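step=encode ok
step=design start
structure_in=
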């Protein structure tokens, strides 16, 4: 909960600073926004490490293959990075670039999910 409170305080402070800077120096407003995103992601990374440990423990106890769990975690990470990148582009007034970032993120997520598809196809072939 303290991480969330830090992120909210950081976000509000950064948003106000970015709004004030955008009036006089728009580029600096975007730089502040990007810096706040990186700082918030660093805060979240600590919690993600704990989540990863819990997922690894669950994987070990259930016997799930890393080939099943890892692509899911990669897709979540790709989704988070894609969302932040696209939103930064939108804040800069570049909606076409934001769409390109989203398209690339979707392609990367599909690529990361390929091991799951392969495992599913292998499982189906073993059943037949």
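sequence_out=
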């Amino acid at each position: 909960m303290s991480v969330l409170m830090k992120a909210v305080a950081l976000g509000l402070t950064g948003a106000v600073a970015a709004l004030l800077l955008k009036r006089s120096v728009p580029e600096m407003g975007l730089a502040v926004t990007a810096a706040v995103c990186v700082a918030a992601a660093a805060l979240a990374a600590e919690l993600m490490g704990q989540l990863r440990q819990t997922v690894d423990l669950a994987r070990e106890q259930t016997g799930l293959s890393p080939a099943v769990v890892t692509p899911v975690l990669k897709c979540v990470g790709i989704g988070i990075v894609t969302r932040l990148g696209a939103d930064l582009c939108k804040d800069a007034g570049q909606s076409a670039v934001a769409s390109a970032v989203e398209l690339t993120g979707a392609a990367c997520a599909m690529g990361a999910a390929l091991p799951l598809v392969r495992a599913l196809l292998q499982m189906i072939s073993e059943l037949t």
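step=design ok
step=annotate ok -> DSSP finds four helices and no strands in the chain.
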